[in-house]
Amino acid sequence: MNLSKRKLLTIGILSFHLVSFSQEPKTNAPNISGNMEATVQYLNPDTLIGAVQPPSKALINAYMNVFYRQAGFKAGMRVESYSPAILGYPDNFDGTGIGMRYVGYENDFVDVTIGNFYEQFGAGLIFRAYEDRSLGFDNAMDGMRLILRPIKGVALKGVYGRNRYKFSEGRVINSSGIVRGADIDFHLNEILPFMKDKKLDITIAGSLVSKYQADNRDDLVLPENVGAYGGRIKARYGRFYSDFEYVMKDNDPSADNNYNYNSGHAALINLGYSQKGLGILVSAKSVDNFSFRSDRDESLQNVLINFLPPMNKTHTYNLVASLYPYQTQPVGEMAYQAEVLYTFQKGTRVGGKYGTTVNGNFSTAYAPVRHTSNFTTPDSNRVYYQTNLFDKADLLYWRDINFNITKKFSPKFNVVLSYFNLSINNDITKITNDAKGIIYSDVAVAEFGYKINKKHSIRAEIQSLTTKKDKGDWATMLIEYNVSPNFFFSIIDQYNYGNPIEALQVHYLIGVFGYIHETSRFTLSYGKQRAGLFCVGGVCRFVPASNGLTINFTHSF
Amino acid sequence: MKKLVFVLSIGLLSFCGFSQESELLSGKSVPSVKLKDMDGKEVNTADFGFDGPVIISFWATWCSPCKRELNTIHDLYTDWQEETGVNLIAVSVDDEKTKNSVPVYVNGKGWEYLVLMDPNGDFKRAMGVNNVPHTFLLDKSGKIVYAHNNYAPGDEDKLYAELLKLKDQN
């Protein structure tokens, strides 16, 4: 190669021009994006805390999404791999293969997808297809979705297909039932000329979802097509806003409701007020017999068509979040919530130099009243009771009263103090085998943040949980050292000092190291992890105790 | 000589291929997803309608580092806007369980950001976001020029330095 530098330069410039030229038609340029995650575990046996070593010793979860878009055309897929799946992950994830794929086209008027899609109608009370990979939840639809936007302010959605049941030997197995639905949404202020720029802002919407599953019983005459329908109104007037949603379901005998022929309902009400420095929210929910699956014989989190949001705060501190979390009871519950957040402005006595924020939250859930007097047993119709809207019984399922105060003392130092009072009915929402009835617990948390210099900072948490039941008292200490923007290191010690069995008064110690480079994140953790519930959005999975190494890598592109 | 031309053309091809690849990685635009703001008004993520650079920050009411990041930027936001003309879009990935607490938190904290709701994770998925907080910086033509997944105190300085780089380019 006796090529002169000059020639090289010319070629370099030429090719540079070529590249910049090919970029010019921006709107039609192809766009590829995606993300991936891999989690590898190597586990040791630890009989004391009940951690088992799987036969393969190591476990892996991995997936990658790739999305392609060009001039309105879109296509995407996800390859998943579980060989075998990590500890506590649902057992219906196994093998390596394509977990999702779709093609579609989209412009301002039409948006069509064939293949897999995720979608939600309203609050999801009658339809929600979604995924949470960390949780092992995926009820993706496989079929067709059409969204039309004929005029500004109107959106019409139609869905038809089967939802994902499991991933077995690298192949997706869909539910045996078919789901189809439609939703129409009118934002009146964009549609009606006289509503334009009015202070009162109104959205009205309605949906209809129906499922089909063949009658598979000889002893019962099962409805093969089950319909659910409802409507919602969202209204805003200045600083006030309100949301109402009400849905009904025809009789839907299933394993969840012991094959009764009752119809079901779910209702949600949210009332809010907010201005700069103050936010208030009051919510209420009424649910009866509203488990909705595309396969009536399924259980757990399988083939759910809808999502019933729990009405309580999602906590972040680990003793509060993973020991006694609450999940909605689809068979029936009446729930209420209130939340206030107030910021004392800078320069006031309480606010100090930087402002101080206080937050209070209350949530509770009760059993519904079941009126049985008009129903004779055995009833040939298999309709056994009646439950009215917001008809609350005295049996407590859940209560959470919590407060926190956030104060910045200087640009370098801030403190968050929190208190939680939790009550959970372990007979109804089973979270532990070591207690009966209602478990009452008090949790206090102090969190400190200190910025050493422009790049280095320390964060510490001290948590205390006290309870007379279950595994007794717990304390957690966390120290995290951050070097912005690339590194962190933390040590967490969870100490079950109040366990009634002395041998189980164990320190669960974990060290975590993390490296972040732009959109890549690598974490390595080693130590003991207690058994607990891992929850996202009110859906939880139980993660057994473990002892070992976990490596996690995520990347976006 | 024929051999040289052959080698050269291969070299040229691979050079083009390579530079196009890096172009794909850094200069991507934002996919179009129709989200609603806190008032229920629809916003197309491919066109936010701002003139200057844009920061997109994915967050949730249950995510402490997300709130630390957005509260830190909140204290600096007026200066950043004056200096660079930036607008921040805070995309909440709260689902129906906690979605209603979003306006309580946003207004209670006095944030001036445009807040968009992504309750079913459609935009999160399209942007390849694994976990929150995840922050993107877009130049004024809407191309992604920087992204970071995490928040530690001090990360805002790095973000601001990237913002200033955009200003220098103008």
Structural notes for this entry:
- The complex is a heterodimer of chains A (557) and B (170).
- Chain A has 557 residues and is mostly beta strands.
- In chain A, 5% of the residues lie in helices and 54% in strands.
- Chain A has helices spanning 5-23, 188-191, 318-322, and strands spanning 31-43, 58-70, 73-82, 95-106, 110-117, 119-120, 128-129, 131-132, 137-138, 141-148, 154-168, 171-174, 178-187, 200-212, 225-237, 240-249, 264-275, 278-288, 332-344, 356-368, 392-408, 413-425, 438-451, 456-466, 474-483, 487-495, 507-517, 520-529, 532-536, 539-543, 546-556.
- Chain A has a 24-stranded antiparallel beta barrel.
- In chain A, β6 and β7 (128-129) form a beta hairpin.
- Chain B has two domains: 1-29; 31-169, Glutaredoxin, CATH 3.40.30.
- Chain B has five helices and seven strands; from the N terminus they run αβββαβαβαββα.
- In chain B, strands 2-1-5-4-3-6-7 form a seven-stranded mixed β-sheet, covered by helices on one side.
- In chain B, a hairpin with a 4-residue loop joins β1 and β2.
- The radius of gyration of chain B is 19 Å and the shape is globular.
- The chains are: A mainly beta (557), B alpha/beta (170).
- Chains A and B meet through α1, β1, β2, β6 and β17 of A and α1, α2, α3, α4 and β7 of B.
